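To whoever picks this up:

The parser on our side crashed when reading a file containing two proteins. I've narrowed it down to the boundary between the first structure block and the second sequence. Both blocks are reproduced below exactly, byte for byte. First block:
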Amino acid sequence: MPGAAIHFLSALYATRYMLPLMFAAQVIGGVMLLAGIFVPLALVILAPMVVNIIFFHMFLDPGGLPLAIVVVSFEVFLAWRHNSAFAPLFRISE
């Protein structure tokens, strides 16, 4: 892993910055997806982590970028399949 990536992950680990929260969100979102319950909510819970994954690999560890693209593709595919749940987010309110 490149040095910048190691420094970034070391800082997250050393400060314990959001690690329990991120772990809990990943587990809860993953279980919801696998069980097929509240899938749109699970996608919303996981979306910030998916964005972080893609940016981490784009800027700090390009070696993992292919797998990150797969993760983003799954997120986008599932969001597209459940687009009716997200449609109100893209309406201009009056």
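<<boundary where parser fails>>
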Amino acid sequence: MLKIRLQRTGKRGQAYFRVIIVEHARKPRGKFLELLGSYDPHKKDLKVNMEKLNGWLSKGAQVSPTVNNLLVNYKYWDKPKVQSWKPKHKEQSPETKTGIPSAAQASAEVPTP
């Protein structure tokens, strides 16, 4: 499956991105099939060749969630945004896993006279 995704370039602290088409299993660094555009997060500037992008989409390529959200933000297309990251799960304490309330929760629930 082909993916349209971002490839990071630039120095440390000065990131720039290319919008590329690449095989989904391949790492984003290295060879890619075609360069579709660029994104400068410092100037907040996105440049994409929509003719090439639509051509790849018609061939079955899929857009990564981040690229999709950038295209929506910069009004290149009118599709809904997609969640592009998953929140980390916080470790639960052993008391909350077993369903037994802790002492702090029990004292907060007891009304004072």
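After patching the parser it read the second block fine. The helical segments are 50-58, 65-73, 94-98, 103-109. The chain has four helices and five strands.
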